[in-house]
Amino acid sequence: MEKSKLIVLLRSFAPSELKRFREFVASPYFNKNADLLRLIEYLERSAPDFIGPKVSKERVFQHLFPKQTFDSQVLGHLMNYLLRLGERFLALQRYEQEEELIQCHTLDQYVDRKLTKHYNYLLRKASKAITESESKNGESYYYQYLMGKAAANHFYSLQVRKFDPSLQTVSDQLDKFYFFQKLRYSCEMLNRQTIIRAEYELNFVDEVQEHLLQAKEVDPLIEIYLRIYLSIKDAEEEGHFKKLLQLIETHGHTIDQKIKREIYLYAINFCAPKIRKGVGAYTSIMLDLYTKGIQTRALFSGDYLSHWTYSNVVKLALRLKRYEWTENFIKEQSINLSPEVREGAEYYNLAELYYHQDAYDKVLDQLNMLQLFDPHHHLGSRVILLKTYYALEAEEPLLSLLSSFSVYLRRNRQISAAMKKTYLNFCNLFHQIMRRNPKKWEALGEEIQQTQPLAERAWLLQLWKERPVYS
To answer: Which of 96, 127, 145 is a domain's end point?
Structure first.
């Protein structure tokens, strides 16, 4: 029973949700079967894990029907009905979170019931609320379409022969809803094509693009996604990206956090390959996007800032040699990291900063506090330590660490294959640099440039260039 769909679903409920679900099952409007209420009341005692002998099918059946012989089919039917109630409960919870959608459906009911006074009052109220939140998220287009549809149905029900403006409204809002969703999904399809080898069919998106580019006026959120789409489609035409940045700056404050996060990540991802190609101007652009996304909390995941985002900002700032700014950022923003990574992330990134400032004693102090077992920074911290040993010309501990790190990477089964290869390639090429074999030195530079994947490519190339070997 522990692996049943019902139990798996119940495990996903927060304590407050489980209580509300029990109340939901107790409501005669949704359930008139008393056995289902007794079933959820009994199962609730085993929350949140729902494991152990008390949730075995036999014990559950015995509690529900103490005078009957165990019947798996009867219990199976009850579990299935309770599962269906759980699904209905989740759907209604979601529905109740969308006040605008409830109002639109209520408008439809008022039209069907010919309650004109009720309809007019709610239409004014709902229109005002949706207009005030317009462009904050893509759902506003859908709600406006539904309101327009209700208005068109209401006008038709009056059976008067005059111009009906609601028909134009419902058509326009349907277009906006379609344009936004079409562009949003098209952006994601193009984005995934660059990550995985898959071809998507982007039907009608060229027509949408052409229409919007020729339109006299386009809603800001739709235009933002149009510019994202064009930036991904033709990364060499930088005018689209510049326009996107202008739109984010002008209208970013009107967009809700979930959509804003998506927009910022698209803009940041546009910068990354430019930086890899050596287009230096994009480093400061990318850092600015990260900074604004953090200031507005758009780049937060729930209540916390991701430690990856935190570290990415540090790396970008260090590229620009903004050392004082970087130190302030590390210390001020660490409070926004989740508690389990907060201390380790601060030590790790301070070590990175001090390495760039040639303050190697401080680097070692930070890494000692990190203790090299932090799971989120374990690999990166070993690379920093290797680089520090190299800078201090501590060849013996360097070679010892390089050897033990390689062994650790080969034996560890918890590290992904891609990550393992990235760092093993680094260890191999660094070891070749340390060996300084004259016969292989020229070829080594080419190998560093071509090896994929590879950590610290630029640093390894710099070592190779700074220490020429002559045969």
So the answer is: 96
